[in-house]
């Protein structure tokens, strides 16, 4: 029985193994002090690329690896079949998955556009982005990933994948927590103030009044929180 689910086990263990690498990838000051700024940044960039893409690759493995399928007792007789790839999707699962996947993709794409792909890959930034999407949530990319996970689990009717959603949330929380810990070291009060105003994972829908924000270059800019 264990052999049947070996790829799922490898995927979840692999995803967990990327977390320590991610922790190292955001310790920019530590590596800069030890190896110098240029070499330190190169090391953390490599660690960031490895942990980031590795995290996603193993996450993808969790979705598609062999595992029991579940069927929600709603519209059980309505199934959409794709003969070419021999794949069937219960209609209710499709209806549930689409909004989750679309919202997850939107959060992920918009967050990367605001911070740039380089920052998303290397986990290194020179400024705090606090406008637009980042004015309602501190980690839209991870929040989007969680939404997409739920949607894809329903799309593939992957029982184990849906079952471990709390673990997926925990792993994303851990990497976000570590990133924030290092951001406080790098940006100090600027990021502390940002944390106090903006929630980590649950978007804040109410817009507050316009407040001044002092950036890392010492200039005052205005943004909506």
Layout of helices and strands:
Elements: H1 6-25, H2 28-35, H3 37-64, E1 79-82, E2 87-90, H4 91-115, H5 117-122, H6 140-155, H7 159-163, H8 165-187, H9 189-197, E3 210-214, E4 220-224
Antiparallel strand pairs: 1-2, 3-4
Helix pairs in contact: 1-3, 1-8, 2-3, 4-6, 6-8, 8-9
**Fraction in helix:** 55-70%
In angstroms, what separates the terminal alpha carbons? 52 Å
Examine the coordinates and then state which fold CATH places here, giving the name of the CATH topology: Four Helix Bundle (Hemerythrin (Met), subunit A)
> Number of helical runs?
9
Query: Which structural category fits the helices and strands?
Result: mainly alpha
- Number of extended strands: 4
Instruction: Domain count, please report it.
Output: 1
How would you write the strand order of the largest sheet? 1-2
CATH architecture: Up-down Bundle
């Amino acid at each position: 029985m264990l052999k049947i689910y070996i790829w799922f086990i490898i995927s979840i263990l692999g995803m967990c193994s990327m977390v320590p690498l991610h922790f190292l990838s955001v310790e920019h000051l530590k590596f800069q002090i030890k190896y110098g700024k240029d070499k330190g940044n190169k090391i953390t960039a490599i660690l960031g690329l490895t942990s980031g893409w590795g995290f996603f690759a193993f996450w993808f493995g969790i979705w598609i690896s062999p595992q029991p399928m579940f069927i929600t007792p709603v519209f059980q007789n309505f199934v959409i079949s794709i003969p070419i790839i021999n794949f069937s999707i219960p209609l209710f699962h499709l209806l549930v998955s689409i909004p989750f996947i679309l919202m997850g993709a939107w959060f992920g794409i918009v967050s990367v556009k605001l911070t740039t792909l380089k920052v998303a890959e290397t986990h290194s930034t020179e400024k705090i982005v606090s406008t637009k999407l980042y004015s309602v949530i501190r980690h839209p990319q991870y929040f989007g990933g969680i939404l997409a996970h739920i949607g894809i689990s329903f799309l593939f009717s992957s029982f184990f994948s849906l079952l471990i959603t709390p673990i997926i949330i925990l792993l994303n929380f851990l990497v976000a927590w570590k990133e924030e810990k290092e951001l406080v070291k790098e940006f100090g009060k600027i990021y502390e103030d940002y944390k106090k105003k903006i929630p980590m994972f649950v978007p804040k829908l109410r817009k507050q009044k316009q407040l001044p924000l002092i950036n890392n270059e010492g200039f005052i800019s205005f943004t909506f929180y």
